[in-house]
Amino acid sequence: MTDMPKLRTRLLVGGPRWRCLRCPRQGLIRREAYAAVFAEVAVDARLGLVRVRRMLGVYDAGRIVSWKLAGGQALGGLVGGIGQALLEHTVTDHRAENNWPEHAADGGRL
Q1: pLDDT at res. 108
Q2: Which Pfam families does the record match to this protein (predicted)?
Q3: What string of DSSP letters covers 39-94?
Q4: Which domain holds residue 83?
């Protein structure tokens, strides 16, 4: 069983508004992750349809503590990017305590 408070103390450093991973060899690491995303789309101008044929996301996220959560973040970013690119707009529910798009769970299978 993992001792979560001990793991948190070992890995995280920072204040209440930000967190950085601690790396024994390099000191502090920035908390941001960087990505490059490429998409191949097909456009049918006559019907006004856009199809995403395939996507590739390449990420530099440093030390991954939870692969499941990191994968979910990456997939969520891809789905959110498709929505922003196709609609040129993002709708968020400002009553919620997050900034997630309202229909983020409706992304379907990529």
Answers
A1: 52
A2: MoCoBD_2
A3: EEEEEETTTTEEEEEEEEEEEE-SS-S-HHHHHHHHHHHHHHHHHHHHHS---B-T
A4: 32-106
Do both 23 and 40 map to the same domain? Answer: no
Global pTM? Answer: 0.54
What are the structure tokens assigned to 41, written together?
Answer: 């789309």
Separation of first and last alpha carbons in the chain: 34
21, 49: one domain: no
* Cα(18)–Cα(29) distance, integer angstroms: 12
Q: Are 54 and 40 in contact (CB under 8 A)?
A: yes
Each residue's pLDDT tens digit, 88-97:
777 766 676 6
pLDDT digit string (tens) for 28-55? 555 667 888 889 999 999 998 999 999 8
